[in-house]
């Protein structure tokens, strides 16, 4: 449990650092830079029922039942 808690803390910190860096980068881009970036990697609309493998959108995988893992 202790290691799981620590992992969660570190994962949260890493996520915060990514979001902070990407936000800063986005704010520093000029209009032409933003246009070029969107041509390289278009933003996709949020679609329900999809997941990501790295940065690629994939169909939502079937998740097997896991309730048994949480029973005492």
Question: Mind sketching the topology for me?
Answer:
Elements: H1 2-28, H2 31-40, E1 50-53, E2 56-59
Antiparallel strand pairs: 1-2
Structural overview:
This protein is mainly α. It has one domain (2-70). It is 51% helix and 11% strand. It contains two helices and two strands. It has helices at residues 2-28, 31-40; strands at 50-53, 56-59. A two-stranded antiparallel ribbon has the order 1-2. The mean pLDDT is 86.
Short key terms for the protein model shown above:
2 helices; 2 strands; 51% helix; flat
Write a concise synopsis of the structure shown.
This protein is mainly alpha-helical and 72 residues long. Helix content is 51%, strand content 11%.
Main-sheet strand order equals: 1-2
Element order, helices and strands?
A: HHEE
Any idea what the shape is? Answer: flat
> How many whole angstroms does the radius of gyration measure?
18 Å
By DSSP, the count of extended strands is 2
Content of β-strand: 5-15%
Number of domains: 1
Distance between the termini: 16 Å
Number of helices: 2
What does the largest sheet look like? 2 strands, antiparallel
Question: Which residues sit in consecutive blocks of at least 5 with pLDDT less than 50?
Answer: none
> Helices and strands: which structural class?
mainly alpha
Helicity level: 40-55%
Mean pLDDT: 86
């Amino acid at each position: 449990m202790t290691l799981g808690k620590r992992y969660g803390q570190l994962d949260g910190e890493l996520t915060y650092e990514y979001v902070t860096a990407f936000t800063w980068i986005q704010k520093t881009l000029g209009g032409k830079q933003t246009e070029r970036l969107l041509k390289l990697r278009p933003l996709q609309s949020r679609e329900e029922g999809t997941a990501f493998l790295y940065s690629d959108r994939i169909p939502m995988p079937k998740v097997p039942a896991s309730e048994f893992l949480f029973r005492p």
